[in-house]
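hiii so my PI (J.) wants the whole complex modelled not just the main chain, which honestly fair. so below is everything: two entries, each one labled with what it is. i double checked the lines twice but i was tired so who knows lol
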Amino acid sequence: KAGVTQTPRYLIKTRGQQVTLSCSPISGHRSVSWYQQTPGQGLQFLFEYFSETQRNKGNFPGRFSGRQFSNSRSEMNVSTLELGDSALYLCASSMSINQPQHFGDGTRLSIL
Amino acid sequence: AQTVTQSQPEMSVQEAETVTLSCTYDTSENNYYLFWYKQPPSRQMILVIRQEAYKQQNATENRFSVNFQKAAKSFSLKISDSQLGDTAMYFCAFMKYGNYGGSQGNLIFGKGTKLSVKP
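here's the output for the full assembly
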């Protein structure tokens, strides 16, 4: 069974631009969560989607948004990029509620 | 709000020896899960072991076992017969129990412990 797939693996953008990251969950998994990992703040929860609905959201500004499609694939969008948005963005999927979350390899976003 | 604390930023162990990583957490929840995740330099976060708070028996997965002390809010990870491939960042994580029809609980992570296994 294929794992969680995140694309692209690396991305370089400049301040003010916007970016879209993609996540394909493990087949059969309907819940997708996104996390931001930085050296300073560690791992922080962004949001969670289930059946195309955002069910939970972390403490991030509105520039961070996401969506989930009918095939459970999810995208995350960051607008008006800032230097502090440089991070590893991790996507995790789980089969259903209270099931373990399995992570992808992440997308490394660098803002110049 | 829940917090997770890992007090050992770095640790090292000799190959084949045993090492214990510490984790404490704070919560007012009664139903929750605790996890240990491993993140090698390849950066993929890999689930090592999971403990359900209502289970008194400590979870084990091959060479990995936990010591779960619910009253003390302590959740340590013991790695036996350490191998070079165990070299990684180890994250302790908390997740509160989600109600069906509601949201999946999000993971709350500690800052991590960098473990080096030396030959």
